[in-house]
Amino acid sequence: LNELGDKCAASIQRLGSLQASHHEERGTQAPAEEVTALTELQGYLDLPPAPDSSQLPRGCYRLIARVLAQWPVAAWGPVLDCLRLLLLYEPVNRHYTMSTGNPVPIIVRRCIMRPDTPRPVQLRALFVACNVFAHEQGGRAVVREGEGPGVMEAALELVGHADLATRMTAAAVLYNVARLLPKVEDIEVLQLASGLAHHVTVKTDSETMFRLLLALARLVYCNSAACSLLLSLEFDPEGIEVEGPQEKVRAVAVEIRRMLDAQSA
């Protein structure tokens, strides 16, 4: 999810092509700011995230907002790919956290929560939802703005997806949400614990299962309400089945079992 690859060069090029087509269809000329913003965006992503990263130029923010506002969801792939990496930069993450125009809740509602979203766009939206948690302020902003339940519901459904990348990323999103939920008898904690307890009983690949169990471990750690819920469901973490390497999966399962036993003692 934080793999820089070609630093979004292909996506930025695609974004430029789609922008050109957009203006051609309308008989308009691309304003100089748009052309400049694409160049600035590439220049920004050419430098890896660092503690002293500078702020993204304002024209880039305006370009991203314009694409999300004017283009159909099916064409959002390139801009979501750029956002996936931009959210790793603390100044960008902080900007969106403090902005009323934070695009992450919109992306969650229009891409992840809708079953008719094209799979490549949905997967990139999952990448965005995962990477917003790269800085705690970003993740807390999403949860604070009331998107937590929607993110959980959609991600819980997608962990059973046939596509490996989709279910692994959905499981990573759930882990990130679990990290920020309170250690109290909170409705979202119980909903997520219940959903995870169900999904880990379904055989899946070891990497997805590992992430799901890590999320569950985060929930039950120092949380008697979550532990009590799993005990009432007669949840057995050591009875799960996985496809592929099992060592690290079993290690987390044993730790969850230990925490549950301590609660019931």
Strand and helix layout:
Layout: H1 9-26, H2 32-45, H3 58-70, H4 77-86, H5 90-98, H6 103-112, H7 119-131, H8 136-158, H9 164-180, H10 187-199, E1 204-205, H11 206-220, H12 224-232, E2 242-243, H13 247-264
Helix pairs in contact: 1-2, 1-4, 2-3, 4-7, 5-8, 6-7, 6-8, 7-9, 8-9, 8-10, 9-11, 10-11, 10-12, 11-13, 12-13
Structural key phrases:
mainly alpha, 2 strands, two-stranded parallel ribbon, 13 helices, 265 residues
Can you describe this structure?
By secondary structure, the chain is an all-alpha fold. 69% of the residues lie in helices and 2% in strands. The protein has 13 helices and two strands. It has helices spanning 9-26, 32-45, 58-70, 77-86, 90-98, 103-112, 119-131, 136-158, 164-180, 187-199, 206-220, 224-232, 247-264; strands at residues 204-205, 242-243. A two-stranded parallel sheet has the order 1-2. Helix 6 (103-112) packs parallel to helix 8 (136-158), helix 7 (119-131) runs parallel beside helix 9 (164-180) and helix 8 crosses helix 9 (164-180). The mean pLDDT is 91.
Short characterization:
The chain is an all-alpha fold and 265 residues long. The protein has helices at 9-26, 32-45, 58-70, 77-86, 90-98, 103-112, 119-131, 136-158, 164-180, 187-199, 206-220, 224-232, 247-264; strands spanning 204-205, 242-243. Strands 1-2 form a two-stranded parallel sheet.
Distance from first to last alpha carbon: 40 Å
Low-confidence spans: pLDDT under 50, at least 5 residues?
none
Give me the side-by-side strand order of the main sheet: 1-2
Average pLDDT level: 91
Structural class: mainly alpha
Radius of gyration, rounded? 20 Å
In which range does the helix fraction lie? 55-70%
Number of helical runs? 13
Beta-strand segment tally? 2
The fraction of residues assigned to DSSP E strands is under 5%
